[in-house]
């Protein structure tokens, strides 16, 4: 006699309490074996595959793509195969149905009108009329659709689980354009008034996935952490020369790679954190204690179509400038491809955001809890500044640091920024400094 195993959603990240279903890889009636992928879910850090812990047959799925599932809630129910082992000994994610597992549906259910609810057995990759009411598409794709006047509901999605891609939207836009711009009749006729683009109706979409988590984190930071922010202008003359010298050396030794300014920023920050430990710390008001981190995990803010990712560069103090450059590029590529792991997004103790990478001059960075500080760097640009009392043109690097005022005072901020400025204005010093 077979029994039913209720598989509860495990914590697929680090201390997560919920995840969004991106796509199902099985349907009701599908046979499954241990480690077979059941679904892809999105956390605030990455897209994660959830494997089956048992052998059996799927009897129910909790929700549709786009739904939010709480950690510990029933994710799928599996009829165990007679004679097959139940949950593996190292699995603590589920138990027999009715044995105390949370069987309520995921948060966010009820978004689909009853008439449009697909049967639970419908594949998650269904398209057309069988797709969920909320079209699966990234924020960037939605923005493009709005700009081109394309109704996402009418666009067949070619991505995973029927997700609409930028290419799908562009194809739909080209099709509409070719119809609207048919040749004018040869017979002379009064010019018809040019019709403005049709007004678009408001689109209301659920706040989901990475953007939802970013919103929660930013509100938490701004409401709970008293920020102080200080600014500096760094004379980047020697920094520009140092980068040029490194890239010239790489070229002369036959290496087809160049470094940006980021490796210098990472190295300077790592040294400053070693000298100013309050900036490499975390304040826990609940337990009334401060943790001074022994390691320096430098979070690198990376902009993607889905939102801002912050992969963590670990052990940067043991890397050369070229090694930092390679590791940072690899992490950024993984973030943009959504292949980055939770481990690569964890362990940060301080964050760097580079306003200059998208042409920004300066900004006011917001701290990422539970960290105590964050540094933002603007775009290097020539400016007229006084040099020994005489106006001169110099490349200037704007710098902003925000810190938790509960832990860090103005004097601490001044010390940190003075050291950071000194290291960036004289990069040779950062090569000689010990960590």
TrEMBL record:
Residues 164-173 have a biased composition (Basic and acidic residues). It comes from Brevibacterium daeguense. This is Dihydrolipoamide acetyltransferase component of pyruvate dehydrogenase complex. InterPro entries: 2-oxoA_DH_lipoyl-BS, 2-oxoacid_DH_actylTfrase, 2-oxoacid_DH_E2_comp, Biotin_lipoyl, CAT-like_dom_sf, E3-bd_dom_sf, PSBD, Single_hybrid_motif. It is an enzyme of class 2 (transferase). Belongs to the 2-oxoacid dehydrogenase family. It comes from the Bacteria. Residues 136-173 form the Peripheral subunit-binding (PSBD) domain. Keywords: Acyltransferase, Lipoyl, Transferase. Residues 84-135, 151-201 are annotated as: Disordered. Its EC number is 2.3.1.-. PANTHER family: DIHYDROLIPOAMIDE ACETYLTRANSFERASE COMPONENT OF PYRUVATE DEHYDROGENASE COMPLEX (PTHR43178), LIPOAMIDE ACYLTRANSFERASE COMPONENT OF BRANCHED-CHAIN ALPHA-KETO ACID DEHYDROGENASE COMPLEX, MITOCHONDRIAL (PTHR43178:SF5). Residues 4-79 form the Lipoyl-binding domain. The keyword Transferase applies. Residues 103-127 have a biased composition (Low complexity). CDD domains: lipoyl_domain. Gene3D superfamilies: 2.40.50.100, Chloramphenicol acetyltransferase-like domain (3.30.559.10), E3-binding domain (4.10.320.10). Its cofactor is (R)-lipoate.
